[in-house]
Amino acid sequence: MSRTPPSPRAEDAPVLRAEGLVKTHHGEGAPAHAVRGVDLAVQKGEFVAVTGPSGAGKSTLLHLLGGLQRPDSGSVWLDGECTDAYSEARWAVERRRRIGIVFQFFNLVSNLSVADNVELPALLAGVSPKQARAEREELLAELGLEGKERSMPGELSGGEQQRVALARALVNHPPLLLADEPAGSLDSKGTREVTRLLSRFHQRGQTILLVTHDARLASAADRVISFFDGRIADDAALDGTPSRGVGISGVLELKD
Amino acid sequence: MRLSLLALLARGPAHGYELKQDLEQLLGAAYPQPNVGQIYVTLGRLEKSGLIAGEEVEQSSRPNKKIYHLTDAGREALRAWYEETADEPRVRDEFFMKLALAPQTGLADQIALINKQRRQYLNTMRDLSKLAAAESRDNRISQLLIEGAMLHLQADLDWLERCQEELEELE
């Protein structure tokens, strides 16, 4: 496996940086310009949501940032380190160490128990079985999944499966969590649950980049990027102060 | 507020301050707290129009309080209220007029307008999420009120997205 020489990392380097990302899908018919020149930096501790209509290219963007797809041009840096020379194998390693990912359809291994699904990435990363088990127990308790260790993914509700996927993504304490429509196949109760958990991990310092078309989920982030037609149309910090200066109960107006 | 007060009085007689507390308890923090002055003014008007009737009750150490009850006409008005369906909220006309007329004024860019409006909606959505988290989960009515506001806002945001898609195509 080829390794790039370790480069000096500035303490204040963004957890994630992208410059000039371009990706065109060549399928049948006209080429689809999914990502058309994206510059982006995510600082440590930020919770960033990317929203936009379906087909705007936001999932492709997340795949480029997590090394699941390679850009046609442009580069991605992790903690100040350029990933241009990363092999597939190296990306796979980074997706265990530095990046956790949750997907819309959970992508759990269906013939492994909940416990094994969560422990597997820890074991693959070289953690001792005892340590992996301890991490798994802590995360499942945290996520309200005690007693489900022996269940198979198919026996769980969508919301529960997504919580298992979240535990799996976080078991190696990655500096960056990527989430691709994590509530996209959940009902509104499941959506609230995922929103609450992401907020909680963020409050403890987890850096998160989330792709979603659900504004309720996006509004949990402290920065929202609007993605249209492969480009960033707006990049706004949500200040969390009431927008009309009338106090929090002024958000709702009941008419007579 | 008129009809909500009538509805509260359908249960039995009450004085103004009780009605204020009932409303607050039912709707939770999401509801802009009605001030007691507004309630007394509204009760006065309802009494004048014969929908409720008030009765002074003497209190030994305090000023008299007025206990109101629903009249037959009031009960009829309330019944009519429940007969009607409510008007659905309309598209945000003011924003839409701004957006539609922007190119003619040369004073604002449509996409910039949409972005600005989206920021406001997202901030409001965030406020609502906080409100929902702060409100007791057991207060179903209040939680439903907030959830309704969030779903409306989600629709507004979806619609902004549609505006942006259409208008960017024209550019």
UniProtKB/TrEMBL annotation, chain A:
<dbReference type="InterPro" id="IPR017871">
    <property type="entry name" value="ABC_transporter-like_CS"/>
</dbReference>
<dbReference type="InterPro" id="IPR017911">
    <property type="entry name" value="MacB-like_ATP-bd"/>
</dbReference>
<keyword id="KW-0813">Transport</keyword>
<dbReference type="InterPro" id="IPR003439">
    <property type="entry name" value="ABC_transporter-like_ATP-bd"/>
</dbReference>
<dbReference type="InterPro" id="IPR003593">
    <property type="entry name" value="AAA+_ATPase"/>
</dbReference>
<dbReference type="Pfam" id="PF00005">
    <property type="entry name" value="ABC_tran"/>
</dbReference>
<protein>
    <submittedName>
        <fullName>ABC transporter ATP-binding protein</fullName>
    </submittedName>
</protein>
<dbReference type="GO" id="GO:0016887">
    <property type="term" value="F:ATP hydrolysis activity"/>
</dbReference>
<dbReference type="GO" id="GO:0005886">
    <property type="term" value="C:plasma membrane"/>
</dbReference>
<dbReference type="GO" id="GO:0005524">
    <property type="term" value="F:ATP binding"/>
</dbReference>
<keyword id="KW-0067">ATP-binding</keyword>
<dbReference type="GO" id="GO:0022857">
    <property type="term" value="F:transmembrane transporter activity"/>
</dbReference>
<dbReference type="InterPro" id="IPR015854">
    <property type="entry name" value="ABC_transpr_LolD-like"/>
</dbReference>
<keyword id="KW-0547">Nucleotide-binding</keyword>
<comment type="similarity">
    <text>Belongs to the ABC transporter superfamily.</text>
</comment>
<feature type="domain" description="ABC transporter">
    <location>
        <begin position="16"/>
        <end position="254"/>
    </location>
</feature>
<dbReference type="GO" id="GO:0098796">
    <property type="term" value="C:membrane protein complex"/>
</dbReference>
<dbReference type="InterPro" id="IPR027417">
    <property type="entry name" value="P-loop_NTPase"/>
</dbReference>
Automatic annotation (TrEMBL), chain B:
<dbReference type="InterPro" id="IPR005149">
    <property type="entry name" value="Tscrpt_reg_PadR_N"/>
</dbReference>
<dbReference type="Pfam" id="PF10400">
    <property type="entry name" value="Vir_act_alpha_C"/>
</dbReference>
<protein>
    <submittedName>
        <fullName>PadR family transcriptional regulator</fullName>
    </submittedName>
</protein>
<dbReference type="InterPro" id="IPR018309">
    <property type="entry name" value="Tscrpt_reg_PadR_C"/>
</dbReference>
<dbReference type="InterPro" id="IPR036388">
    <property type="entry name" value="WH-like_DNA-bd_sf"/>
</dbReference>
<feature type="domain" description="Transcription regulator PadR N-terminal">
    <location>
        <begin position="5"/>
        <end position="79"/>
    </location>
</feature>
<dbReference type="InterPro" id="IPR036390">
    <property type="entry name" value="WH_DNA-bd_sf"/>
</dbReference>
<dbReference type="Pfam" id="PF03551">
    <property type="entry name" value="PadR"/>
</dbReference>
<feature type="domain" description="Transcription regulator PadR C-terminal">
    <location>
        <begin position="91"/>
        <end position="168"/>
    </location>
</feature>
